C-alpha cells in the first residue's frame, strides 16, 4: 500500500471520529435541556398533582335567602309494587303565577306517580279532602311549574301536591286534623301505586301554633272615629255622598270601602253605632274609619288617606276625630298610631308574609 493510500485512510478515520464526537456532544446538550424542562422534579399533572386534590364546591346558602322554610320530618309511603327500599325525590318546581300552596302557611303533601294521574281518578281524593274545615289546595306540575288543578289546561299529572292551611283567624289546625289529612293522601297514593311524602303531624302542628301566635300579634285593625260635636248626628245619605266623591264604593252590607288599584280592600267606613243603639237607620252618632292592616300592601299610605278622609268628613259634618274611648285624637296621637302600624308591617315582612300579599290575605281570613 502506498504512502498516499495510508494518508487518505488516516484522514478519513480522523473525519469520521470528529463527526461521531460532534454528534455525541450535541446529543448530550439536548438531553440536558430536555431534563431541565421535563425532569422528574416536575410532577405529572395528570397523575401526580401536588398536595391534596380538592373538588369544586358551592358555597353555603344563607338561611335568609331561602324563599320557603324547610319542611319538618317527612314520612314516606312506598307503593305496593315497589320493593327497592328507596324513597322518591321530592318533586321540585317553581310556583306558577296562579299557585297558592306555600310551606310558610301550609303543611304540604306530595304525590309522585310513574303513570299519569287523570283528573277523573282524582275525584276520590278531592271528595275526601272536603271534610277539612281548613282550606286545602291541590296543584300539579304543568310546564315545570306548580299550577292549581282546577285552572290547569292539563288533565293528567305525574306530580301533585296538596296543601292544608295551618292557621287562620279561626285558630290553628290540630295535630289530629293534620294526621287525617296525611292518611287521606297516603291512602289515595297507595290506591294508584304512587308514592306520597307528608310532613310529620307533630312538626306541622307545632308550626301551626307558631303561625297562630304570629297571627295574633299581626292581626291589627287600625281605626279612627268621627263623632258629632255636642251630640250632633250625621245623615247617612250625606256621609255616602262624601264617601263616593272620594272614590269609595258601597258594599252589600252598607259599608263604604276604598279599594286599592289591584282590587283588594284598603279601608272601610262604617257606622260608629252599628250595633243598633240608634233606632233611626238614616242617621248615626258617628263614623268609624277602619284599616285591616294584614290585607293592605301599603298600610302607611292607606292610613294617611283614611285619616285625610276622616278629617274631611269631620270638617264637613261638624264632627271631631276620637279614639274608641271617645277621647280626641291629636296629631301626636295619629303619629303614634302610624308608628305602631309600621312596626307590625315590618314584622310581617320579616316573617316572609308581607301585608297585602296573597299569603297574608289567605292567612288572615
Radius of gyration: 39 Å
Number of strands: 16
Mean pLDDT: 80
Q: Please write the string of helix (H) and strand (E) elements.
A: HEEHEEEEEHEHEEHEEEEEHEHH
SS content category:
alpha+beta
Low-confidence stretches: 33-90
General shape: elongated
Q: Figure out the total of helices.
A: 8
Assembly state of the chains shown: single chain
Strand content: 15-25%
Helix content: 25-40%
Structure description:
This protein is α+β, with helices and mostly antiparallel strands. The chain has 2 domains: 68-217, no CATH class; 219-363, Cell Division Protein Zipa, Chain: A. The termini are far apart. It has 8 helices and 16 strands. Helix 2 runs antiparallel to helix 3 (175-191) and helix 6 runs antiparallel to helix 7.
Give the arrangement of secondary structure elements.
Layout: H1 3-38, E1 74-77, E2 106-118, H2 123-129, E3 136-142, E4 145-148, E5 156-165, E6 167-168, E7 171-172, H3 175-191, E8 195-199, H4 201-218, E9 221-228, E10 234-235, H5 236-245, E11 249-250, E12 256-259, E13 265-271, E14 283-284, E15 286-292, H6 299-317, E16 319-322, H7 331-350, H8 358-363
Helix pairs in contact: 2-3, 3-4, 6-7
Structural descriptors:
365 residues; alpha+beta; Cell Division Protein Zipa, Chain: A; six-stranded antiparallel β-sheet; 16 strands
